[in-house]
Amino acid sequence: MHKKIVVLVSGRGTNLQALIDAVKNGTIPGRITLVISDNPHAYALERARKENIPTVILDYASFPGKKAYETALLDILTKEGPDLICLAGYMRIVGREIVARYRHRILNIHPSLLPAFPGLEAQKQAVEYGVKVSGCTVHFVDEGMDTGPIVLQAACPVLDDDTPETLSARILQYEHQIYPQAVRLFLEGKLSIEGRKVLVKE
């Protein structure tokens, strides 16, 4: 029986598309059973609908606060019963109760080589800082902001004439490669966590 993946999105959904494609070509031994968005206008929802993947909109603006939103989100996740939750351009910090309930079962993709440049606008941070190499990171989600144990990373050169936009576009190509790979490793039971280290058994 295929394992169940729930994907949380907020925007364009290019990483969602990479996961969808990897499921379809057999790279990921699971299926995306639900896509949840905090943004009713996220194009990621359209990507899911094109593949007949069920969607749920939890419009953050319609809730009285973060606690009410997180309660509703946890309720949906509990009913769905995913083996893995993937954040794909999800622009909110996952609440502590959800992190605790799904400890080491939530993955995120971040456009920098963590621990460098966590949070928003990582590519802009990298360009402004003047680093020569940036990249992307797949990590487990914990209670902090982009602080969980690192699963996979890919390095990307930062060019002298890079802007945040050009660097973002180049890093994105690496994101689409390593996120499906990390999901595959997780679902195949090839990841183990020892302290801050994620050990990969190939």
Task: Write up this protein.
The chain has 2 domains: 1-102, Rossmann fold, CATH 3.40.50; 109-202, Rossmann fold (3-Layer(aba) Sandwich). α1 (14-24) runs parallel beside α6 (164-187) and α5 crosses α6. β2 (30-37), α2 (43-50) and β3 form a beta-alpha-beta unit. It has 6 helices and 9 strands. 36% of the residues lie in helices and 26% in strands. With 202 residues, it is of the alpha/beta class. The longest helix has 24 residues, at 164-187. A 7-stranded mixed sheet has the order 3-2-1-4-5-6-7. The chain has helices at 14-24, 43-50, 66-80, 96-101, 122-129, 164-187, and strands at 3-9, 30-37, 55-57, 84-88, 106-110, 133-140, 150-157, 191-194, 197-200. The two termini are 22 Å apart.
The percent of residues in helical segments reads 25-40%
CATH superfamily of the largest domain: Formyl transferase, N-terminal domain
Structural class by secondary-structure content = alpha/beta
Computed CA radius of gyration, to the nearest angstrom: 16 Å
- Anisotropy-based shape: globular
SS summary, helix count? 6
- How much beta, percentage-wise? 25-35%
The top-level CATH class of the largest domain is: Alpha Beta
CATH topology of the largest domain: Rossmann fold
Q: Write down the secondary-structure element order.
A: EHEHEHEHEHEEHEE
Count of the separate structural domains: 2
Number of strands: 9
Most strands sheet: 7 strands, mixed
The CATH architecture category of the largest domain equals 3-Layer(aba) Sandwich
Sequence stretches where pLDDT stays below 50 over 5 or more residues: none
Strand order of the largest sheet: 3-2-1-4-5-6-7
Distance between the termini: 22 Å
